[in-house]
TrEMBL record:
It holds the Pfam family MaoC_dehydratas. One of its GO terms (biological process) is fatty acid biosynthetic process. Residues 186-258 form the MaoC-like domain. GO terms for cellular component: fatty acid synthase complex. This is MaoC-like domain-containing protein. GO terms for molecular function: fatty acid synthase activity. It comes from Luteipulveratus halotolerans.
Length: 287
């Protein structure tokens, strides 16, 4: 039977993350729980949306960016991770990829209900993978869906790990240059609630193996979509995978190539000097 955690407001993520870390030793390593985390009738704060848009390149509009709904669902994801029935520890997890499907634009004045659950635990050569499934509804209408895939290093899942196919190189060439300030992690943490210290504190980042602080993957995902906002269809699927962390401060290059037949895009985020691939993605219009 599915258990439900009902949230009446967005939780403060610092204590929820602390709880997830503190209970890491109690994780069972067994099956994923039948657990829904739900927050109903969310009314978006226009000021919060404006701050998000400013950081991610979206214009101020009466419609929510597709990645903003992921932003709203993230506290529900962390609530799921902090529940003792969740088998994998938060520390050491790696956010590998996202798939977002926007079935139609959502207006600022619409009340949205978000539901988050987990599924599809499977083995990986470096540990275990699991998907976190999110959905947004206006009334009974499904308007948005998200799939976030996480790698739990050193953990186990039943089955045989699949060989990874060679995905080739992402799109490259001339593109837009973005100079990322050193305080980007702190600023995005303020609008996302993701206060992981690797994004804000260089000493914490170094302790975990990074030479300096790194940008949030959710920021990269949103900033790439925001760069194409005025060319997006009303309904689309956005796939993005994260390859190498974006160090901050740094300068990155955004590259986009449109398919003239489908109207979709292949996109990539690269280090400006070295050409290192940080993230790649595709945007596919829905019929």
């Amino acid at each position: 039977m599915t258990r439900t955690i009902e949230l009446t407001s967005s939780p403060s993520l610092a204590p929820v993350m602390a709880k997830a870390v503190a209970t890491a030793q109690l994780r069972s390593g067994k099956a994923l729980p039948q657990l829904d985390v739900v927050r109903r009738d969310i009314r978006v704060d226009a000021g919060h949306l404006a701050a998000y848009d400013q950081l991610t390149g979206f214009p101020l509009r009466n419609e929510l960016p597709a990645t903003y709904l992921h932003n709203l669902s993230f506290p529900l994801q962390v609530t799921l991770f902090a529940d003792r029935s969740y088998p994998y520890p938060l520390m050491g997890s790696v956010h590998l990829s996202n798939r977002i499907t926007q079935h139609r634009p959502v207006s600022l004045d619409e009340a949205v209900t978000l539901t988050v659950r987990t599924a599809n635990a499977r083995p990986h050569r470096r540990g275990a993978l699991a998907d976190v499934l999110s959905e947004a509804r206006v009334g009974d209408e499904l308007v948005w869906e998200g799939v976030s895939t996480y790698l739990y290093r050193g953990q186990k899942a039943e089955g045989t790990a699949q060989e990874q196919a060679d995905s080739g190189d992402a799109v490259d060439g001339p593109g837009a240059l973005w100079r990322l300030p050193g305080d980007l992690g702190r600023r995005f943490a303020a609008v996302s609630g993701d206060v992981n210290p690797i994004h804000m504190n260089p000493f914490a980042a170094k302790a975990l193996g990074f030479p300096q602080t790194i940008a949030h993957g959710a920021w990269s995902m949103a900033r790439m979509l925001g760069a194409l906002e005025n060319r997006l269809p009303e309904a689309f699927t956005y796939d993005v995978s994260f390859r190498k962390p974006v160090l901050i401060p740094s300068t990155v290059r955004f590259v986009a190539r449109q398919d003239p037949t489908t109207g979709g895009f292949d996109i990539a985020l690269r280090n400006h000097k070295k050409g290192t691939e940080h993230a790649r993605g595709s945007i596919t219009p829905l019929a």
